[in-house]
Design goal:
mainly alpha, single chain
């Protein structure tokens, strides 16, 4: 194949608008869940800031044509460390492990899915970062097995979204990944 395949603008716009509508729907659902379950703790605001962050990152990446996946990975690690440090400093209430870090991992996974969907031709640039974020998202499983933390709704959601985002990324790029493997392994 001499010329790379381009995704047509109608398909790209459909994906983009469906992701925007999905983000808005998730934000509204989070607000409703927050108001019904724990109105005194405004965790939905943190999650919605994360969704906004995802879109700012995606828009920056699209306009500048840069690979921000590495920055997303570094930021997720730094944000998790800062949240854990802050939680520990104020007497470890557990909010960082049970609320903050899972929300940050969810945001990172969704950001990577959006980046992959919008610019799937650069899948190989995002693949290693997607895999590293998935590994970070699955680390709570080890902590749960060792009885260091317990499974909560947000931790389970972060793990599920991590696996789903990896599958979605692989589905978007299946043909390209297959071609790359065939080329590299000379099959």
């Amino acid at each position: 194949m001499i010329y790379p395949q381009k995704i047509n603008s109608k398909k790209s716009n459909k994906i983009f608008y469906s992701l925007v509508i999905g983000s808005i729907t998730i934000a509204i659902i989070l607000i409703i869940i927050n108001k019904l379950t724990t109105p005194q703790i405004h965790w939905a605001a943190l999650a919605n800031c994360g969704i906004l962050y995802s879109w700012i990152t995606v828009m920056y990446s699209i306009k500048k044509g840069t690979n921000v996946a590495g920055h997303v990975l570094i930021q997720i690690i730094l944000v998790s460390i800062v949240m854990l440090y802050t939680d520990t400093t104020i007497g470890y209430k557990g909010w960082s492990v049970y609320i903050g870090i899972p929300i940050a991992l969810i945001v990172a996974n969704i950001t990577m899915v959006i980046l992959t969907a919008i610019s799937y031709e650069k899948y190989i640039k995002y693949a290693i970062y997607q895999l590293m974020i998935v590994i970070l998202s699955l680390m709570p499983i080890v902590l749960i097995i060792k009885n260091i933390i317990e499974m909560t709704f947000l931790i389970r959601t972060a793990i599920d979204i991590s696996v789903i985002s990896l599958v979605i990324s692989l589905v978007f790029c299946y043909k390209d990944i297959k071609e790359a493997i065939i080329r590299k392994l000379h099959m």
